[in-house]
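Researcher: Next entry in the queue.
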Amino acid sequence: MLAMASDAGFKPLDGIASAPLLAEDGSLRIADGYDPLTRMWCEHMPAVEVPPAPTRQDAEVSLRRLRRVIRTFAFADAKSVMLQGQSVPVVDIEQPPGVDESAALVALLTAVCRPSLRLAPGVLIHAPAFSGAGTGKGLLVRVICAIAFGMHPRAMTAGGTLEELDKRLVAALIGAEQTLFLDNVNGMALRSDALASAITERPAYVRVLGSSTTRALNPVTFVVITGNGVVLSEDLARRFITIELDAGMEDPDPTGKGRQYLAAMIGKLEGTRAAGFLLARIRTAGKWSPDLYALQRTVPEAAEAPCSPMNPMPMPTGPAWESVL
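Model: Structure for this entry, 325 residues:
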C-alpha cells in the first residue's frame, strides 16, 4: 500500500504529513485525509498564519525565535555566553549562528518541509568518540521531530553487520514512518547502499526481505543518524548535513554522577590494591584529553596472593543525591 498503486485499487500512498504542505509557488496548503497532489495522508495539520509578503524583519524575528529554542545545545563552533541564573553557558544568539547551529536550523526546516520535497538530505548529529556521551544528540533529534511532526521518533540501532543494517533500513523505509532515526552509531565508518539510494532516488527500489522481489518506494522519510566518533563513507558523505556537538569536557553529565564519580569512588576502595588491581588512567589523544580508566594488575605476584575483602563503596550524602538514592 505504501508503494505504488496495487491491483487491489488502493491509491498510491507515499507517507504521512502533519505539517502544512509547501506548494511550488511558495504558498502553504492545509489538507485533511488523502491528498492526491502529493500522495500523502494528511492529519493534524496546524493552521499557520504567514504574512502575504514577509519582510526581512519578519524573517529575523522568526530566526531568533528558533535560535532561542535550541540555544542550550553544545554546538561545537558556537559562541557561548553565561546568562544570569544559568549554570551552564548557552549559545549567544546576539552573534551570527555558527556552522553547526546553522546546520541544526536547516535540519529543522528540512524535517518540517520533508513531505513537500521530492528529495532531501539526511542529517548526521555526531560528537567526539571518547567524550560524546551525554552531549544531547538524541535530545536534539526529539526536539526537531516534536516541532516538525508533533511526536517523538522511534530509535533503532545499526545492528552488528552491514547486512543487518540494510535489512533494518529497508524495513523502516517500507513502514514509511515520518522519521528514520538510527541511534548510537558509534566508532564506525557508516556506509549503506540502501540508505544512499533512498536519499537520492525516487522511486528507490529495495529488495523485500525473505524474497527475491523488489519494491518501488517513494520515501519521504526524514533520515537522521546520531553517534560518537562516526564518519560517513562512500556515497553517504555527500548526502548528509552534519551537526557536531561538543560540550568541551570529558564527562558532559552536569550532575557529576557519571564516569568521574565512579572513577573517584573506585579509587578509594582499598581492596582493589590488596587484590592486585589498581585503577589506572590511560592517556588518549583527543581534543579535550578524554582519559580512560581501567583496573590493571599491579604486580604479577599480586595475582597469586590471597584477595583481601574490598571495602564497600561509600554512599553519597546530601540533598543532591536524594533523587538518585
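Model: The CA atoms of residues 33 and 186 lie 39 Å apart.
Researcher: Noted, moving on.
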